[in-house]
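Researcher: Structure prediction, please.
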Amino acid sequence: VVLQGTIEGILDYLVRAVWIHI
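Model: Predicted structure follows.
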C-alpha cells in the first residue's frame, strides 16, 4: 500500500512537472 502510494505520488509529480514544462 505504501509503495503504491509512493509510486502514485511520483507519477503525479512527474505529470505536473511535464505539464508545467510544456
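Model: The longest helix spans residues 2-21.
Researcher: Thanks, that helps.
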